[in-house]
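JOB MANIFEST
job_type = single_chain_structure
chain_count = 1
residues = 474
[input]
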Amino acid sequence: MDRARLIRKDDCEWELPRADAMRVPGVLYADEALIDAMDDKVAEQVANVAALPGIVKASFAMPDAHWGYGFPIGGVAAFDEDGVVSAGGVGFDISCGVRTLTTGLTVRDVDTVKGELADLLYARIPAGVGSTGALRLSASEMDAMLAGGARWAVARGYGEREDLERIEERGTAKGADPSAVSDAAKQRQRDQMGTLGSGNHYLEVQRVTDIHDDAIAKAYGLQRDAIVISIHCGSRGLGHQIGTDYLRSMTIAAKAAGIALPERELACAPIRSEVGQRYLGAMRAGINCALANRQILTHLAREAVREVLPEAKLELLYDVSHNTCKVEEHVVDGRRGELFVHRKGATRAFGPGHRDLPPAFRDAGQPVLIGGSMGTASYVLAGTEAGMRAAFGSACHGAGRSMSRSQALKRWNGRQIVDLLAGRGILIRSPSQRGVAEEAPGAYKDVTEVVDAADRAGLARKVARLAPIICIKG
């Protein structure tokens, strides 16, 4: 990125000053190396978002930011009730997120059965393009799932009631409107519940390699050499179809409202408009779909692990999404009010004392789960008070791609990656060698650099580093 457009404010904070149609400045959180590695398109998209009606404070980019559809991936923007909601500001994979479970196991417990566990998880967890599960939803059950989220799944025997306390919004996004979801979207999801999908989605068995904050790690139930399980996926075909459906109607709604869009991909609708309200209802239904999907996958993973390791405890640490628009209370210019916070490829990271956190985490802050690329580290962070003030309680969501999937395919093949990682003690199970090549670790930024920048910027605090030993990949 051309730094000439930016004003350096701090070690890991850069301002993109207001210019042209921008209503607020842009703010990018990254160190020098990450800024230099970002495409100039990121700054362009940050500026475009800053021009949307109703935006408050700033248009933000997280340390893993890269070019996306309309909004940058790693973008955060909040709008007042007179502003807009944008499908491009949420993304197509609505409520894609990460959930992590502690197991009560250590590396020593798993080492002798690692191959058996990898094979059983692969057999039980549907993964890959167009993957389907054993569950088939009727029309009435589809609507019940879209309204109930993880609570719907638990009520039907997928998981434990205690899980709900450790999920954003206690497992159900309020205000979901299944009637605002098209029949095409529902049909795509009819037999995809309890599936990982493809792309960068995965289920990993991971070991805790480093503890960075002893007190918070203890509150989270993490210690060195402990085994955890992380699941990264979203709302599958349903979320993608919701995004597709509403981008069309938002293009029309923006024009009708007299909103001049810097680019078509920023299609949006006034929050108070019929299209805006219907999208919010559909998007919340998409959130519930993702929460239910991860809940079912948790149940399947628990069954598989307990067959191989009956002593495993498998308690949910937390589940947090990174493609959403949430109504939240924040302070801007000394005034507290409700804002519509878009996070696209950015993770909610509420600080200590927030009323939405489970009692066990009130003093520590919200667990912030950062997924790495296949074969590299992941991290557990904690939300901070500084982060609440800096970017509406938001942090990065992962490593962020450094090259496209087509570029990755030109450099690597799947078998090469599988063998390379096996030599490092990481077992990969995937139905697609092409998918493995597209998700090669070298196609991503260094997740440690990204997390370090988030920590230094005060967005979130490092708690623990995780390394994969088994990866089930779509």
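[summary]
The domain at 3-473 is CATH 3.90.1860.10 (tRNA-splicing ligase RtcB).
The chain has a mean pLDDT of 96.
exit_status = 0
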